[in-house]
Amino acid sequence: MEVLKIATAGSVDDGKSTLIGRLLYDTKSLTDDKLEAIRNSSVKKGYDYLDFSLATDGLVAEREQGITIDVAHIYFSTPRKSYIIADTPGHIEYTRNMVTGASTSQVALILIDARKGVIEQTYRHFFINNLLRVKEVIVVVNKMDLVDYDEAIFEDIKANFEKLNDNSTYKEQQVSYVPVSALKGDNVADRSNEMPWYQGDTILEHLEKIDASANGNKGLVRFPVQTVIRPKTEEYHDFRGFAGKLYGGNLKVGDAVTVLPSLTQSRIKEIYFYDKTFDEATAGSSVTICLEDEVNITRGDMLVKEDELPTIQKELRATVCWMDNKQLLPGSKYFVQHSTNRVLSKISAVKNTIATDYSGSKLSDGKLSLNEIGEVEIKLSKPVFYDSFTENKSNGSFILIDEQTNATAGVGFIN
């Protein structure tokens, strides 16, 4: 069954958690005890309705304040698909959490309060989804019940968002608009009787139609080696396999491959999934590959097709989302974790900071602060083999790790 990954985004109190809770309720994905807990809590608070936001807000502070702070991952399914939703916070100070939640998603639900329309946070959330190359965006105009289901208000918000979309790389068909009331269930899983003027799909209908196999890669085969398998048994004493996850495209037995960084060439002899052999491995598969030749390969190396070599350099220019309280400064040293390859690096320059309202970039004062996004130049202690993020999301991204605390300090997208 296909698995579709979804990220939510929206300002505080736009109803993200309520929308997700409603999806869970309407698809009968809430357990009886969870539903009973929601009923009891709603009665305690004096509500005359079920507060579905309680289905997702897991931290005590979230439940007490009625807001989302951390990224919560919620799972549900229909007969056609399985879904993983990253419920991300709306506060400006939690922008890094939103980047984390959207980084692996194929579709984003951007919520807008029908009473407020497009606001600053809307710009920021749409910009980040565009930066991360999330395949599709569904603009959810929520709380339509509070504006009497007025079509004119919906159309005005849609027109304002389309002006914003003119500045993005999204095509018109990649952005959809749905008027909903998450609280009452209008156009979430079921069509609304209150908005007969809307003839489009419900949110669930949109999600059911999206191709979950899209991975943001343009067919370039990339197989980063995670580990070398050498069994300590007599039966397999000559076995030497290379385990990892295949990105971008398929590999077949007999395909000519190049080993990076040595540029040694060989052919695929066998492909294993656990203890069974296959003639072909598809993108997204975690497999073990054996080569025809005895080649020196270690963790961090990469197998590619011989005519699909990536860029191999000791310098990177990337867009970096900064996630650390300590500022990113020129001269600072970090580990670059690029796929399975970890390389010591030094920040050469912070060239500029990028405004998330699509107003452009401005010259940096030489640093990036928490939640800022900017263009950064990095020198590496040894070459890495990369693609641009637009060509291959998996091989065009990396994280920066503080060498002292081992904390993830930033995430980068190679230009």
Q: Which whole number gives the mean pLDDT?
A: 87
Number of domains: 3
Helix content: 10-25%
Q: Low-confidence stretches at least 5 residues in length (pLDDT < 50)?
A: 58-69
Strand-residue proportion = 35-45%
Number of helices: 7
CATH class of the largest domain: Alpha Beta
The CATH superfamily of the largest domain turns out to be P-loop containing nucleotide triphosphate hydrolases
Principal-axis shape equals: globular
Round the Cα radius of gyration to an integer and report it.
Answer: 24 Å
Elements, N to C (H/E): EHHHEEHEHEHEHEEEEEEEEEEEEEEEE
* Alpha-carbon distance between the two ends: 34 Å
Main beta sheet: strand number and arrangement?
Answer: 6 strands, mixed
* CATH third-level topology of the largest domain: Rossmann fold
Task: Examine the secondary-structure arrangement and name the CATH architecture of the largest domain.
Answer: 3-Layer(aba) Sandwich
Strand order, main sheet: write it out. 2-3-1-4-5-6
Counted beta strands:
22
Structural class assignment: alpha+beta
